[in-house]
Amino acid sequence: MIRRIISLSLLALTPLSAQGEPAVLYGTHCAVCHGDDRLGSLGPALIPESLRRLKGDKLEAVIAKGRISTQMPGFSAQITAKDIAELAAYLHTPLPEIPVWDAARIADTLEVNPDYVAPDAPQHDADPLNLFVVVETGDHHISVLDGDTFDVLARLPTPLAVHGGPKFTPDGRFTFVMSRDGWVQKIDLWSMQEVARLRAGVNSRNIAMSKDGKYLAVANYLPHSLTILSTADLSVQRIFDVVGKEGESSRVSAVYQAPQRDSFILALKDIPEIWEIATDPNADPVYEGFVHSREKGMVEAIASSEGLFARRRIEVSEPLDDFFFTPDYRFLIGAARDSDRGVVVNLNVGRETHELPLSGLPHLGSGISWEYQGRRVMATPHLREAKLSVIDIQNWEILTQIDTDGPGFFLRSHENSPYLWADVFFGPNRDVMHVIDKNTLKIVKTLRPVPGKTLAHVEFDRDGQYALVSLWENDGAIIIYDAQTLEEVKRLPMSKPSGKYNVFNKITFSDGTSH
Ligand code: DHE
Hints:
Layout: H1 2-13, H2 16-19, H3 21-34, H4 48-51, H5 58-65, H6 81-91, H7 103-108, E1 111-112, E2 131-136, E3 141-146, E4 152-157, E5 167-168, E6 174-178, E7 183-188, E8 193-199, E9 203-209, E10 215-222, E11 225-230, E12 236-241, E13 252-258, E14 263-268, E15 273-278, E16 286-293, E17 298-305, E18 311-315, E19 321-325, E20 331-335, E21 341-346, E22 351-357, E23 368-372, E24 375-381, E25 387-392, E26 397-403, E27 411-412, E28 419-423, E29 433-437, E30 443-447, E31 455-460, E32 466-471, E33 476-482, E34 488-494, E35 497-502, H8 503-507
Antiparallel strand pairs: 1-8, 2-3, 2-35, 3-4, 5-6, 6-7, 7-8, 9-10, 10-11, 11-12, 13-14, 14-15, 15-18, 16-17, 19-20, 20-21, 21-22, 23-24, 24-25, 25-26, 27-28, 28-29, 29-30, 31-32, 32-33, 33-34
Helix pairs in contact: 1-3, 3-6, 5-6
The chain binds heme D (DHE).
The site of heme D has 15 residues, from strand 9 and strand 35.
Enzyme class: oxidoreductase
EC number: 1.7.2.1
GO molecular function, one term: nitrite reductase (NO-forming) activity
């Protein structure tokens, strides 16, 4: 209520002509939940960076009709269609300036759960490493499943619009969940309780855990930064303002953990650089420039940083994002801007080495790798073409392309499974899931458990015996299949389940999962 009074009084002080009609409507109807500054409060931030996915008249429809399973009401009775259209256009307009989101402001957002008590041992009988965390985006919860019995052990509310995979501490005890509005939530899987949450960015992409489990990096679109938090208490350890060699700032598309390198790797949206940030306190110095030393009469390399959080720039010919990493983390494949090419970068020498013709927007971040006829291959879906590309990652040649019933989003397999599972996320066949033999590269079965309902994203239990699939609908479910016979064994009702993550597979960097 206090917030509402402030927002209305601010409006009263500003002449109407200066605010424009939509700003007044915003103050009257939206500010109470979405914040006077449009940066979110009870509801999500209403800025172009957060609304990018509501294209065309979708945002108008949400304003008019509301959103099911949320507290967003419809406003068609209070606001005319014309005004709704103007309000939607206003919300798609960038903020006049990038908000300051520094360490002090981030620290201010910390919310600690007063009921949390750290237990000495797991407070459940399940195998703590065979738990699944299921993200339910329909009503903003996570469910924790026992990976042996498939009982739901707990269901906890999350921030709105959780995106990307939760990340786990190396012992599997704590998991961290991130929302597109930059909230990071810490959950103790021993007690199944939220520990705390804090807003590390205004508009964020994903999170990554350091190898030792001490740090969590948050990739932000807004501001243009990487926030590094302590996993112990979510305190801010470092904020990198992301500015390229030429002085231009950039959004961070994603941050990844590179365990063998003991570092974070950053994909940068707007500048032709990849950043590597050391998570090893003893990291070697990083040399980034040369000066002429008068005393020594020679050109000397200048170390810009060393040790923990030493930052290395890898210059590439154009911005790359959506990375697939080889299992040894020597190479990555990134998608070029024109989305018709993959570019291979050797991270050891810091150079582009190969180019792959990959039309139809390859979704490299979903890529997985396995041994095929004595060589290591990877497969990637394409967001705009009905195929999977299989690439030999020794010689960087496209081995084959597998035709599918439509463009897909996610792939999954497991070391103990002969199959890889590929969804068809787009088009009329988005209700099917292909199961593909990893040795013959042929589709052996196409599952369609509920005709007309979207089926997507698979995760295996720790032994690779069962595959869990999301029926990606508000009245959806997790469908559990026997991973050998491909028969359904159980169905658990869920609210628009998106990703699901097995603790063991994630902390061991299973071959079958994208990292
Ligand atoms: Fe994602 C992972 C980027 C749209 C669901 N998505 C990721 C990751 C990135 C990414 C960088 C890796 C994060 C990680 O796990 O650490 N996603 C993008 C995009 O750029 C894109 C195409 C556009 C955007 O809106 O940002 C996009 N993603 C979507 C969706 O529309 C999906 C289907 C629904 C949603 O929740 O927004 C979606 N993305 C997911 C999921 C993962 C993910 C479920 C984790 C996959 C996993 O198995 O690890």
